[in-house]
Task: inverse folding
């Protein structure tokens, strides 16, 4: 056998060993999503997709501040990403930073919508509607909530927010229907049961009010709106105190 052929085979064997070792290391990254996304984010820190994926993984684990850091890093690489702006807006809503959330939605509305399509545009519509209702822009909130819920109806907090907005506008029947839709989605929501009790109270439907409040109390007796409304409906409220409507928005992936 010629020396040249031996060198070739030796080089081939070395490359094969390197390949097998790298494959072993890479497969080790797949033992958990945390390890995989963190490794990728460290090695491909200029990849919009990789950095966004790491942020999504942290958001799914309820690490909102960590996710926010990586989403902002992703936008620093390429700023025109509507889906990333939406994820940031949702975090701001969950953190109660409504003004910053509204700025993100304004950016989405004035941008190119990159990352959104007919199958997922309900996300920003429903959450913008929720935000508008939460900040007092009820009519605009109803518009966006209707748009979002027509595209994807399985949004319990969306139906609840729509019902709250409709009740504030005096649309009693529509509000009850929206709350009922929310209960079909999540029959264990103390917030929705409490809100529908308020709706029944406005029409003096005492038996229905009582049943709804009993269910709300059984599901979450510590919920502030449930405690407050129970005081009002049992005659323990002070003069001038009125029932409260309860908005809620879960962390992503929850109902």
Result:
């Amino acid at each position: 056998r010629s020396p040249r052929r031996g060198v070739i085979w030796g080089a081939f064997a070395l490359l094969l060993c390197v390949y097998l070792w790298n494959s072993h290391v890479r497969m080790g990254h797949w033992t958990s999503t945390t390890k995989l996304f963190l490794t990728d984010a460290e090695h491909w820190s200029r990849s919009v997709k990789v950095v966004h994926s790491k942020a999504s993984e942290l958001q799914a684990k309820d690490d909102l501040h960590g996710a926010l850091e990586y989403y902002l890093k992703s936008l620093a690489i390429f700023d025109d990403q509507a889906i990333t702006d939406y994820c940031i807006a949702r975090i701001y809503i969950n953190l109660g930073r409504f003004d910053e959330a509204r700025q993100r939605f304004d950016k989405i509305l004035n941008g190119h919508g990159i990352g959104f399509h007919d199958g997922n545009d309900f996300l920003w519509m429903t959450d913008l509607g929720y935000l508008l209702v939460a900040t007092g822009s009820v009519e605009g909130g109803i518009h966006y909530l209707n748009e979002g819920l027509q595209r994807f109806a399985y949004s319990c907090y969306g139906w609840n927010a729509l019902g709250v907005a409709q009740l504030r506008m005096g649309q009693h029947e529509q509000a009850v229907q929206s709350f009922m839709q929310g209960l079909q989605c999540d029959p264990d929501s103390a917030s929705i049961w409490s809100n529908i009790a308020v709706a029944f109270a406005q029409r003096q439907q005492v038996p229905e009010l009582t049943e709804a409040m009993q269910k709300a109390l059984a599901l979450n007796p510590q919920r502030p709106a449930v405690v407050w409304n129970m005081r009002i409906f049992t005659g323990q409220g002070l003069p001038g105190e009125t029932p409260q409507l309860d908005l809620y928005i879960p962390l992503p992936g929850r109902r």
Observations:
- The radius of gyration is 26 Å.
